[in-house]
Design goal:
The structure holds two protein chains of two kinds. Chain A is mostly beta strands. Chain A has four helices and 31 strands. In chain A, helix 2 crosses helix 4. Chain A starts with a helix and ends in a 5-residue tail after the last strand. In chain B, strand 2, helix 5 and strand 3 form a beta-alpha-beta unit. Classes of the chains: A mainly beta, B alpha+beta.
Chain lengths: 438, 178
């Protein structure tokens, strides 16, 4: 609803980001921004000398967040005419118009004992007005990056009309060693690759972590017993327990339902892989498929009513969807090639997938009825998309070819623009993007 | 030392099957589960000694019987060559009741992780089913899939992929008499 309203007010910045004084500053990102919006970010003003360092780091972090979207271009401070040395002083719009800054962000940072307070204001330069109220975020010194991400999320949200994704985390598999003796560990980090923390050791093969809707737990598959089993881990305590113990069978490819009450997964019996839903409260499990084909990689729709998955029931694997309560499945993908790893967007509008065709792998998106398929990437091996919390960006694994081939994490806008490598300490695969943190 | 050498064949999974301090092999006993009665004396170790030079050694299984069968792209149906190898494996397992087997299914890297896990499971099951239909007791066989996680050849060419699309029969010495 809100989106539609905003769209009416939207000025598309596709070719020019010149904004007239009459129209509010707004960036429409549906069609992809060709020319990023020029913005000015003044160094946040330290309120105490103790805050000087942190103020610079927070300012740079906000700049990096905004620039990483490809939607904004920061005007370097060497070109600034005006200087903001007092957060409360009135803005001299002429100084910022002169360098064609469409938006201006000012802020302050205060440090008292272990408490950091970050304040910011956002201005529409050509409208000569403040965009929204000033805001303040407070937290421990240790959480300074989160405070910066929250400012960047607020700026992004006010200019685009959509929620941000900077204050979020990514769980992934950290990989080391040669291809025929790979060691894999579960790890978690900030969305931009900072603050990496390992969650498991390297002694057991682990695959494909997935966040709970509250971001506090992850599901993953481990060969700890020698056989693939699904585990659920509490991220804060690292305590874990096996889920869906099925003697003699493999279970894998788990995902939480949007309400966190159940888990959909694949289990194998006598060589055949089907889908099941396990209710975490009652322990009851429901069989969704009983086909002789492979059914795997299930993912819930955001309202929890449907499950999208891949199946090779008609030959090459294709994408299907069905009610989360069971029943018949409808085919979604229609194109040539092999489709896998479908993931429903948190906005509900799209399904991201992996497609294998003519010897190459692609990350793509399509509408939930299979129409309007668009391939965003193409490479030797791209796979396993995961959605940003706002459904605007997907992160995925790209593995290079050959004996020294290694996987790396990348992200790309659903417009097909802004391909970015996500830094990890070692090789990285199987990313899972968390919801926005509270 | 014997203990260790056998462990190597088990690729770690045997660790779960064999406790420390117990003999890796038990005496073969009458096994009529599959209608095959053992003619071995019950206290004769040599018949299942894996280091025997003969047709019951582990080395013989690896080198002469063949511990693995290969699959065409995206297939889990057994080729004629695979059936010939599995026929020999079945005969070996029937002769050597002191072993169980873990059949590992694998895939090449040209597929998604989840699909390849499921495909590897199909391949392992195809090998297992063939062994069972050739007289090996189903309760001596387990399967696991590694999907594309454990390649043995690492190039990104068909000659490597062909070796990676495999089902490997890993023998595990049974511990009995507890």
């Amino acid at each position: 609803m809100m989106l539609r309203l905003l769209t009416l007010l939207t000025l598309c910045c596709g070719l020019t980001s010149q904004v007239s004084a009459q129209e509010p500053l707004r960036l429409e990102i549906s069609d992809g921004v060709i020319e990023p919006m020029p913005i000015a970010l003044t160094d946040f003003v330290p309120q105490e000398s103790l805050a000087t360092d942190l103020a610079i780091r927070i300012t740079r972090l906000i700049a990096a967040d905004l620039a990483s979207t490809g939607l904004f271009r920061e005007i370097p401070s060497t070109r600034h005419i005006g200087r903001v040395t007092n957060f409360s002083s009135p803005v001299q719009y002429a100084d910022w118009k002169a360098i064609n800054a469409q938006a201006l962000i000012t802020g302050s940072v205060s440090v008292q004992a272990d408490r950091v307070v970050v304040q910011f204001r956002l201005f529409d330069v050509f409208a000569e007005s403040q965009l929204g109220q000033g805001m303040q975020f407070a937290g421990s010194a240790e959480s300074w990056r989160r405070l910066g991400h929250k400012v960047a999320d607020a700026v992004y949200s006010r200019i685009t009309g959509e929620s941000g994704y900077f204050d979020s985390r990514v769980a992934f598999v950290s990989e080391r060693g040669p291809k025929d003796a790979r060691q894999k560990r579960l790890a978690i980090m900030d969305y931009d690759g900072a603050n990496v923390q390992f969650l498991t050791g390297a002694q057991h093969l682990v695959l494909a972590p997935r966040f709970s809707p509250d971001g506090r737990q992850i599901l993953y598959t481990s060969y700890e017993t020698g056989f693939p089993r699904i585990y659920v881990m509490d991220i804060a305590t690292l305590r874990r327990r096996v889920l869906a113990e099925r003697e003699g069978n493999m279970s894998f490819a788990p995902r939480f339902s949007p309400d966190g009450q159940s888990v959909v997964f694949s289990a194998e019996t006598s060589g055949n892989t089907d889908l099941f839903v396990l209710n975490l409260r009652t322990g009851a499990s429901l069989r969704l498929t009983s086909d002789a084909a492979i059914e795997t990689a299930p993912s819930f729709s955001p309202d929890g009513s449907q499950v999208v998955f891949e199946s090779d029931r008609t030959g090459a694997p294709q994408i299907y969807k069905m009610s989360a309560r069971g029943g018949t499945a409808q085919r979604v993908s229609r194109g040539e090639g092999r489709y896998g790893t479908p993931v429903w967007s948190p906005r509900g509008d799209l399904i991201a997938f992996t497609k294998q065709t003519q010897g190459r792998f692609h990350i793509g998106v399509m509408r939930t009825d299979g129409t309007e398929e668009r391939l965003l990437t193409g490479a030797f091996l791209d796979e396993g998309p995961t959605w940003s919390p706002n459904g605007r960006v997907v992160m995925f694994t790209r593995e290079t070819q050959g004996e020294r081939g290694v996987p790396t994490l990348y992200s790309i806008d659903i417009t097909g623009r802004n391909l970015r490598r996500i830094p990890t300490p070692d090789a990285g695969s199987d990313p899972a993007w968390s919801p926005l943190l509270p | 030392m014997r203990y260790f050498r056998v462990m190597m064949f088990g690729l770690g999974f045997a660790l779960g099957a064999c406790g420390q301090g117990t003999p890796p092999f038990s005496n073969p006993s009458e096994d009529s589960l599959d209608g095959i009665s053992s003619t071995l004396p019950s206290d004769d170790l040599t018949a299942t000694d894996p280091f025997d030079e003969g047709q019951n050694s582990l080395a013989y299984f690896q080198q002469n019987v063949g511990d693995r069968v290969l699959f065409p792209v995206d297939q889990s149906a057994l080729t004629a060559e695979a059936r010939a190898i599995l026929t020999e494996q079945a005969a070996y397992l029937i002769r050597n009741s002191g072993f169980t087997a873990l059949i590992e299914g694998h895939a090449d890297e040209r597929g998604t992780r989840d699909y390849n896990l499921a495909l590897g499971a199909r391949r392992a099951a195809a090998a297992r089913d063939f062994l069972v239909s050739n007289g090996v007791s189903a309760d001596r066989l387990r399967t696991v899939s590694y999907g594309k996680e454990r390649p043995i050849e690492i190039c990104s060419q068909e000659r490597c992929y062909a070796q990676n699309r495999r089902a490997v029969t890993v023998l595990i010495a049974v511990q009995t008499g507890l």
